[in-house]
DNA sequence: GCGTTCTACTATAACGTTATAGTTTCACCT
DNA sequence: AGGTGAAACTATAACGTTATAGTAGAACGC
């Protein structure tokens, strides 16, 4: 990278390392502006930060020149001096069944970060990895000002660790640890409650939830909502705990087929994701059942596939973009110590 | 962040900013190790880099202590001194019709980056943005050692710019600019050729390609493959240039319905993506046509949805994970000036 | 025993930034 | 006139790292 060459010597004898800059004009620094204006480096620095003890005329002149020569602060310098990284690290779970979700989260976060001074750093980990490892790395190297986490568990060691080390973070999802922190969550409990109500209003009396693993808080929330609503409305319910991922849809289909052949099969389904819903539909149709007639399905998704898959599916849309935007706002506020932790829930919408 | 506190003074009077570190032990630096071992900072630095002029015993001792106290190099220090950022920036197109693709790319890249010293930085831009802007930023601030680009155009100004500035980069897709650089690409030309062959072997004689925009190189490749194979096998072909995105599937469906009502409708379709394929199927079925009987569809996808959508769809799987892995390898090699640019194509597989 | 060479280390400066503690200049008050 | 104080600026050091030049001491040749 020309603009950031090793400072000491001119590079060997290689004539022009990448066919790039003729006389390599070198990236401007505060010193450049100082030389041009005849001011000291310190004054230039303070002028650009709009400090109180710099004259208005000077500020104007400095800003003008900075603009003209295309000055951009050197991140490494700032970081070394202040400890401020201007990096936000998204530590993301990279299991296939959450990837579409995550993709949208990445997109919305990085979009929300444009026009801020923060950069997005993505660190994945997979099921076999220790989820603590990326967190420890970030804390130990001080490589980010704040962290965003997803796939939150009720008792989540990452959150305890970050909180104990004073590293600002925000989560997509909630814990049950009583540690106040910024978060955004889809209200999964309301979602399953609404789903139950909808299915019951359609005459269904025996419901099944294709649920995410209950180790995840949102899985628990879904089950809670299901059980509460079913009890309240006096209908039967069960959970089918099958790992929902693209790769084992066939397996899920088989399990659902089996369920439908048992004595008292469900007539209403709820699914928390796109591929789960597709698996349910395929299994039901294989069993000769007709969606909207013999059985009904309520499904939540972040994509827009299900409406095109079968129009009979009752779809609740989750707006992940909203989550990203909020998380960025909440996290930056937390980094800049701006009031108490901001928290928000997305309310599911389902016409009854 | 404790481990990276502004160095000068102790923070105000706030008793404990985040309930974190008691006596804040401060993150170890080379100096810490130097003090412990009684060596100089320079020696410690060189010992950790396994330099030739340091004694074996010393190296061992330094490494041991470094390990013990959990030393991690300060990135800002390294970066300031050497210009090496250890960041790789994925500049990603964030249009909805490529997001699933991109999600997998992000995942595979960041996975390939684990256990390397590089970090992944994601910078999105959308259709209305100037695609050059993130590139200029990276070059001007020297914020990355290398760049990965996707959604490549035949004549792509980003590539000219990066190349002129000597910034290493790798692309997912190809240009036609004759600038040698590392890339990975799915062989879309072969894909449509195979698709045509397959459809012709099924007796289809009038083919239609739901094509990506031909401004993109891969769109052009697909059209080239289609036209060449159709000509070779003596069948008719056309391209339907509709913007394929989740959001306007309804529009695509309508357009395809219209096409089917015109005089000489296609009997074989090729689609380059998941939602396009779903739109085609929906439109055809609305017109009362049966997949696998009246018409056939060959589709490429990176997800695993289509097989579950209609088993009659002839699916070609694209393995985006492969792309990420390769791009990382090729880009890091290029950064470290390791031989000529590495390039690879994914060969589509379709049983005829 | 003196120069030479090698090994294993050290001292120093510099990368770009910013917090702090000055310093200079000038206006104003009594 | 002398002191006070504000306004506007500067000098300095430090953050953690590494490239370079330098040095101390041992080993070796003749």
Would you write up a description of this structure?
The structure is a homodimer of 352-residue chains. Chain A has 352 residues and is an alpha/beta fold. In chain A, 42% of the residues lie in helices and 15% in strands. Chain A contains 13 helices and eleven strands. Chain A has helices at 30-37, 41-48, 56-69, 75-82, 99-113, 132-141, 157-164, 188-201, 217-233, 249-261, 274-286, 306-309, 320-335, and strands spanning 87-93, 119-125, 146-149, 169-172, 183-186, 206-210, 236-240, 268-271, 296-301, 314-317, 343-346. In chain A, the strands form two sheets. Chain A has a six-stranded parallel sheet, sandwiched between helices. A five-stranded parallel sheet of chain A has the order 7-6-8-9-10, sandwiched between helices. In chain A, helix 6 packs parallel to helix 7 and helix 8 (188-201) packs parallel to helix 9 (217-233). Chain A is elongated. Chain A starts with 29 loop residues before the first helix and ends in a 6-residue tail after the last strand. In chain A, 48% of the residues are buried. Strand 2 of chain A pairs antiparallel with strand 2 (119-125) of chain B. The structure holds a DNA duplex (30 and 30 nucleotides).
Which features would summarize this protein structure in a list?
homodimer, alpha/beta, six-stranded parallel β-sheet, 13 helices, disordered N terminus, DNA-binding
């Amino acid at each position: 990278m020309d603009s950031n060459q090793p400072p000491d010597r001119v590079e060997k004898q290689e004539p022009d390392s990448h066919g790039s800059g003729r006389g390599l004009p070198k990236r401007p620094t505060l010193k450049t502006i100082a030389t041009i204006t005849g001011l000291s480096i310190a004054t230039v620095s303070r002028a650009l930060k709009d400090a109180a003890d710099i004259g208005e005329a000077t500020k104007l002149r400095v800003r003008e020149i900075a603009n003209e020569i295309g000055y951009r602060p050197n991140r490494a310098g700032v970081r070394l001096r202040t400890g401020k990284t201007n990096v936000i690290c998204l530590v993301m779970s990279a299991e296939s069944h959450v990837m579409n979700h995550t993709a949208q989260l990445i997109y919305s976060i990085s979009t929300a970060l444009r026009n801020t001074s923060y950069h997005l750093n993505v660190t994945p980990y997979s099921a076999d990895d220790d989820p603590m490892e990326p967190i420890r790395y970030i804390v130990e190297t001080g490589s980010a000002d704040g962290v965003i986490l997803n796939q939150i568990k009720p008792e989540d060691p990452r959150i305890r660790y970050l909180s104990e080390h004073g590293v600002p973070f925000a989560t997509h999802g909630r814990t049950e640890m009583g540690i106040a922190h910024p978060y955004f969550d889809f209200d999964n409990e309301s979602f399953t409650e609404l789903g139950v109500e909808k299915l019951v209003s359609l005459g269904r009396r025996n419901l099944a939830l294709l649920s995410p693993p209950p180790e995840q808080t949102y899985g628990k929330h879904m089950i809670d909502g299901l059980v509460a609503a079913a009890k309240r409305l006096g209908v039967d319910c069960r959970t089918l705990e099958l790992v929902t991922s693209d790769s084992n849809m066939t397996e899920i289909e088989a399990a659902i087929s089996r369920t439908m052949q048992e004595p008292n099969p469900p007539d209403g389904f709820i699914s928390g994701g796109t591929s789960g819903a597709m698996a349910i539909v395929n299994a039901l149709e294989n069993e000769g059942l007709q969606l909207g007639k013999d059985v009904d399905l309520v499904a939540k998704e972040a994509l827009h596939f299900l409406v095109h898959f079968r129009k009979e599916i009752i779809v609740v849309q989750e707006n992940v973009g909203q989550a990203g935007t909020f998380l960025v706002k909440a996290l930056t506020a937390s980094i800049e110590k701006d009031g108490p932790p901001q928290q928000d829930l997305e309310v599911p919408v389902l016409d009854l």
